[in-house]
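To: structure subgroup
Subject: Chain for Friday's discussion

All,

I'm putting the inputs and outputs inline so they're searchable in the archive.
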Amino acid sequence: MVLATRAAFARAIDAGFLRHNPATQVALPDRPPSRRTALSADQLEQVHLSLLTHSRDPELDDLVFEFLRETGCRRQGAIRLSQDDLAPATRAVRLIEKYDKQRWVPVSAHLVDRLVSHTALRTVAARSSCIDRTAAISTTSGSRDSLGASNTWRGPPN
């Protein structure tokens, strides 16, 4: 409310109705502490069991769950993951997330093996999406997605 009042007075000053902004002398109230917390191990296990129990594709959903849990990536990072983003030799995956920001994330050897074997089992072409349920979407190295972002392979991290 204080910021809105300050903005209203600033507009009045710009219009020439006032000479100074009295709301600048009012202190902003403290923000309440965040009530967001991480899930406990028990809660995470409950989510995982529910996911596997009610899934139409438990194998894929388990892989996506493990990927998200291990990398902590955003949803978009998992959706845009492709075969070119896997670096099994260095046990890393390249994530392309919000605002096309790219980062390499180390992952366990177990997860890399699961991603590679999943890609081999479910792809239509050699460069198909790793987590696509239908394996009908295929991207090639150097292609652009629907937003025009480049998916060019830049090599594994040093």
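Points worth raising on Friday:
The helical segments are 2-14, 41-53, 58-71, 75-79, 109-122.
Confidence is low (pLDDT under 50) at residues 134-153.

D.
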